[in-house]
Give the backbone structure.
Amino acid sequence: MIDERPPQLPDYEDPPIHEVAFAIQFEPPADYQQAYITEVWDLFRDEFPKVQEVESRPPKFETFGLPGFQQTAFEIKSGPLHDRFWFLTEDEVELIQFQSDRLTHNWRKSKSPDEPYPRFERILPKFEEEFKNLDSYFLERFSTKAAINQCELTYINRIYISDENESISKWLNINCGDIDFEEFLVNARKVLYSSSSEPYARFHCVCRSAYDQNKEFLLQLELTVRGMPSSPDLTAASDFFKNAREVIVYSFDSLGTDYAHKKWGKK
Amino acid sequence: MGEEMSLTEWQDSYAHRESTESPNNVFPLNQKRHRESIELPRVGWWSKIINRLEYLVTLPKGWDGYAAPPVRFQNAYFAATILSRICADDSLEPHIVPGHDGDLQIEWHLESAIFELHIIAPNNVIAWYGDDSTGEDGIERRITNNFIWAIEILDAMKDRNLGCATAEG
């Protein structure tokens, strides 16, 4: 069943969305080994018949403590390292990423530039179904369900700017004064609180200037909400994604200028 | 505006994002694409702790003489994430002790106080603090992801330790 879009959320005819990713991180089944990967692929193969193998990613956890958190790099190398697998649709527009402790569903505009963004309300139920299938498989195979410990929703926007000399503040409510920066990179974070005033997630905003493969100048605006669902199950994860989406959409709306809103067809 | 990262720090962190866009599909204006090390330990014991965690996740099954598995990888990562979040440059050095079920404990010991974080699983931590004022039962709290109380305890222990050092000196 596809939920209706909340009517109060800002909406755009043609938002500059380039990629969207839904991710669930969970405790991996103790007995899972990479030898089982074809069984996992079989869960999704009908719709995702292509596969690629890539490097796995370490776990990510949002925790709260010292303010002005100074990231300390670390890498913990364990014994056998599992890969991450991409299961792709025939046109490669959508894919599932799987590794032993994470499931992600991506939609990508780059593979089909003329197709509009299918919208949150269409992707979330698909992802829920994909996770349910994986969870059922874990239960049958390893007698354990996946205990969800983090959820993450990311929207990547590409704002194409025809004139490199055009000020960033024409498009985004980021004041650069009169400085004509050669390069631009901002990384900002905000703690999100539950109704009981406990921190549960972070909103991350990364904006940087770049060129794409066609050497066209753009601003890439990545908006991510990552954190702990209220309980380690899919119902709580779905609620997390719905709240995360609202945070992202309101933030995107707030960051965009009136000029940008017009260009993107704000309704 | 917020915390800015250097371009290379961003390139390192980009690899951890769920996006399928590699840094090679979008070129920053600065064409430097090689990764630089950002291993800058904030505290002197940091690399020792990471080495210890790496050791614990590769323990053989039955390392305790029975059937204990190694420390679970996510538990080790969660421990490192917590320490990165709660330890300042002058924090007391912790000790890491493996449990018998893939769990682990981070401990700080003074002559007059003990603080323990028992990591059962990510977002499932039992914190225990005891000193001469708390009695044998100590103070126990269950923590998911908010470690403000742990910072307060560590600050108090650091002050207690400095007080002892001053008295001895």
Observations:
- The helical segments of chain A are 37-44, 120-142, 234-255, 258-263.
- Chain A touches chain B through 69 residues (CB under 8 Å).
- Strands of chain A lie at 17-26, 50-54, 84-88, 94-99, 102-108, 148-160, 185-193, 199-211, 217-227.
